[in-house]
Amino acid sequence: MWIYEKKLQYPVRVSKCDVKMAKYLIEQYGGADGELSAALRYMNQRYTIPNKVIGLLTDIATEEFAHLEMIATMVYKLTKDATVEELEEAGLGGHYANHDRALFYHNAEGVPWTAAYIAAKGDPIADLYEDIAAEEKARATYQWLIDMTDDVDLQDSLKFLREREIVHSLRFREAVEILKEDQGRKTIF
What we know:
- By secondary structure, the protein is mainly α.
- The chain has a single domain (19-183), classed as Ferritin, core subunit, four-helix bundle (Ferritin, Up-down Bundle), CATH 1.20.1260.10.
- It has helices at residues 19-30, 35-45, 51-79, 84-89, 93-99, 124-147, 152-183.
- Helix 2 (35-45) packs antiparallel against helix 3 (51-79) and helix 3 runs antiparallel to helix 7.
- The longest helix has 32 residues, at 152-183.
- It is elongated.
- 37% of the residues are buried.
C-alpha cells in the first residue's frame, strides 16, 4: 500500500537548541489533536466511509504519518545538544526519567496518548465533520507554536504543516459535499 521515500516531506531546520519549544511541539506528536491521532483516526474511518472518498482518507492519513516524522525530527534537533539540567528546566525531567531522550506519545504536559483521541462514529458525514474539526484544531495549534518561537527556520517548517492542515480541512469539506450530493442533502457551508 505504501512506498516509503527516505526523506522528509518538507525540510526541517532549526537554528538553535530550544528544549522548551521541543516540549511544546510534543503536543503535535502525542496530543489529542496531534499527527498520530489524525493519522490513526483517518486510517480507521476509511473502513466505514463510502468508496467515493475512501482514497481521500487514505491519502491524508498517510500524509499525517509524514507530519509525525517531521515533528519527531524537530524535537530531536531542538533537544540533541541539551543537558539534563536544561531538560529539567524546560519541564521534561519526568520524560527524561522515563524515556531518556526517546520520543514517547504524550502531550506537552506529559499525559500519555490514548485511543480515546480517535473519533469514529461510523456515520460518514459525522466522521468527516469530526475530521474537519481535527484539522482546524491542528491548524490553530501550529499557529500558536509559530507564535511561540523566534527561530525562523523552525517557523518555516511549522508554517508548512499549518498550511497542510488547511488543505486537509478543505479536502474534507469537499468530501462532505460529495456525500451530501449523493444523499440529496443540502449543505450548511
